[in-house]
Amino acid sequence: MNVYLVQNSRKVLKDGLLKRSKRRWSPLPFNIIENDVLPFPKDVELIASDSSATRSVYYTISGPGVTEEPVGVFSVVMDTGMLQVNKAVDRERTPQFVFQARVFDRYTNQETDLPLPIIVNVDDVNDNAPTFTGLLQFTVLEQSKAGTMVGMVNATDIDKRGTDHTKIRYSLLSGTNLFYINPETGVISTKTDTLDREVNDKHLVTVEIRDMNGALTGLFNTATATIVLGDINDNPPTFTKTSYDVKVKENQGEGLILRIPIEDKDLVKTPNWITEFVIQKGNENGNFRIERDPKTNEGLIYLIKPLDYEKTKNLKLEVMARNQAELSGTKAQWMSIPVNVSVVDEDEGPEFTAPTVLFTVKENTPNDTLIGTYIAVDPETKSSAGIKYYKVSDPASWIKVYETTGQLKIANTIDRESHFVTNGVYNVTMKAVDASLKTGTGTVIIQVEDMNDHVPVIPSKDLVVCEMDGGEMGSVLVVAEDKDRAPFSAPFSFELGEEHDGRWAVKRLNDTAGMLEHTKELPIGLYTVPLMVKDLQGFGKTQTVTVRICRCRNGACLAYQNSTTLGVWAILAMLLALCLLLLLFLGSSLWTNNKMHSPFLTPSLTLSTWSLQKLAYLGTREEGRYADDIIHAYGFEGVGSPAGSVGCCSDQDNQEDLDFLNTLGPKFKILAEVCNKK
């Protein structure tokens, strides 16, 4: 079989002559069969070059399958160029080999042709059976319709694609009465709608996969697929008994009184199995509650309100059980059973005629005033004979309870504004005790009516008015409050007291506040203003507020900020006054003792009257703020102080220190001249 081509190449020269070049050989690809059997080596094809006709040549090959991995698969007969295969080949590992062939002159060892690429394809044989891929575990709901998809079986074959060697066909070897598999796609579907999880929750089916399109000669594998049936709520919970009876003592405290077991065939711990219980009848008074035990799925009936034998001797409850999920795939309904509750009679303590009683009392009602009677009776005899009454709680000790009659009288003055009263209500707890020392309790609710026993008051009586510029009058907010309730409190009226000085006015701002303002320009200082504040009934009294008029910074009174220190100007005025007095004292002494005339003494004496008055006035100023607008008299303390002179003017070594006096205006100019003379 000739599977190669030998081609000669020619070139056209400029002179039009043809010249032969080295030959290029292009053999067709060779083919071998995988897994070939002995004996080896086996001839594949002849590799030949036309140069062998004129020369003595030999052949070599190299590359993968020859000198490279996998080494030694192929070889060539050097003299003839016959390509041989030396061992069996697995197509699934190496489907093709590509290596090079060369031809050499035997005498010169030079290549006679260009290297030739050799391609050897390995033909496939069906030596691999198909295999399963993926999990063979599927789930489908019970009672699914016929034809419902369950899942898909996946398989693969490593033989050559596109051939019958890899064409797989699927089939079921078991479970064919319930399931069906598509032979081409491997999809498993239900064959019936009668699958019941409660009968059989899991099915095992055998699946076969065979290549060669399912031919008997094809290779195959089998495996077991697991089909789990999913649960639907096709079984309602059922009771293990047809009815229940339970006994409960009257006045028994809260607690469990009955367990109701339940059976459910559906999947445990799912909404199809979890039971919800409902008391449909007999619990109109709310004496019971029912809940589920999360561990056992039982119904638990609890008593939450005591039962009274004298009122109810027997109760018939109807309890229904249902699942969290609705029923599906069944015609069954939720079930109910009766529960009979019998109340057992007990010797009880006395009971008040009502759990609570309401009395209305005006505050400040006189002591020993009867406000009402609160009695108890024996629940069986309905008699109150032999029952005694006591207080359990009376926080303010306002009420006196008569032991044998249950009468309630005022013991101490009731004040509606007391912190013991909440929203006008005061509570007293009473206890009734019978001859057997059994007890019962009740509550007395006292509704305290308000009286107009409080006048409106001004809680903050220290007020501040900031000095205004441009002759504008200042004002301040006055707020009042009254402990009484309407109509004995706001809205309030505001007016000046009878002893006011005419320099102030007040007007109402809202129900609880008024605006106080001065009507005349007033200097900085403290003022007292009488104010009359009345409630809606005209009940009130005169109260005195203190108003401080001051200069403010950022709304705060500067007088407060400097109240503990003297201002710079006040200290300066005091020092200057001391200087002047010392000078006058020295001048007088010289005039009297030495009979000497002082050229500056007379003007100084003239100045002193004005200066003392002005300095006393200045001494009461604090950085431009006057304490009050009066003149203080100077108190003379005598002469001849043994301490000598301590005046600032008589002991000035540095005259420049008093230059600042010249900047203080004409009021201090003369004083500055006097102090600077010696």
From TrEMBL:
Location(s), subcellular: Cell membrane
Coiled-coil residues: none
SMART domains: CA
Membrane topology reported for the UniProt record: Single-pass type I membrane protein
The keyword rRNA-binding is annotated on this UniProt entry: no
GO molecular function, one term: beta-catenin binding
Pfam families assigned to the protein according to its UniProt record, in alphabetical order: CADH_Y-type_LIR, Cadherin
GO CC terms: adherens junction; catenin complex
SUPFAM superfamilies to which the protein is assigned, alphabetical: Cadherin-like (SSF49313)
Sorted UniProt keywords: Calcium, Cell adhesion, Cell membrane, Glycoprotein, Membrane, Metal-binding, Repeat, Transmembrane, Transmembrane helix
All copies of domain Cadherin, residue ranges: 24-132, 132-239, 240-352, 353-458
InterPro entries per record: Cadherin (IPR039808), Cadherin-like_dom (IPR002126), Cadherin-like_sf (IPR015919), Cadherin_CS (IPR020894), Cadherin_Y-type_LIR (IPR000233), Catenin-bd_sf (IPR027397)
Transmembrane segments: 566-586
GO biological process, any: convergent extension involved in gastrulation
General function of this protein: Cadherins are calcium-dependent cell adhesion proteins.
PANTHER family referenced in this protein's UniProt entry, alphabetically: CADHERIN-23, CADHERIN-LIKE PROTEIN 26
Protein name: Desmocollin-2-like
Organism this protein belongs to: Salmo trutta
Lineage of origin: Eukaryota, Metazoa, Chordata, Craniata, Vertebrata
Gene that encodes the chain: LOC115169648
